Amino acid sequence: MAAAAPAKAEAAEGEAPAAKKGGKKKLLLILLPLLLLIGVGAGLWFTGILPKLLGMGPPPEPAAEAAAEPAPPPRSPPAFVDLPEIVANLNVPGRRASFVRLRAKIEISRAEDTAVVQAAMPRLQDLFQTYLREVRPEELRGSAGTHRLREELIARANLAAAPARITDVLFVEMLVQ
Length: 177
Known about the structure:
Elements: H1 4-47, H2 49-53, H3 62-68, E1 79-89, E2 99-108, H4 114-119, H5 121-134, H6 142-160, E3 166-176
Antiparallel strand pairs: 1-2, 2-3
């Protein structure tokens, strides 16, 4: 009985490599045609044959469509509104005071919105001052700091002048001491 057990173990060990070989053959039989199909599809796509077959080519006669469509109305040029000079203390720990002096222009998308922005100017100044008082001097260093400040001021300006769309805040002068 003891001799039969090792014979079964050897038979089981001998079958395992045979099963692995069969598994590799099945894997190759599946992967090779799949890779060949992907390669042919990529070749047809990059040569431009497949997009034409799928109807993804350029539309026929673009000149006729352009003549039929009316031209879009001319966009009004952007307008600029001066922001009064802002001087604000920065958030500095300790007794040493630090402040920022900022002169800027606000770019609006339509010149017709100038009156709306002028009417919202006190709110704009308040939001800008409040934000600048929470900024630390190290946050304003470098171009990344200036870019971050610009993005924050644009977001606040769009909130304050709600119907008007503020597209940019342009710094005329920014002094950090």
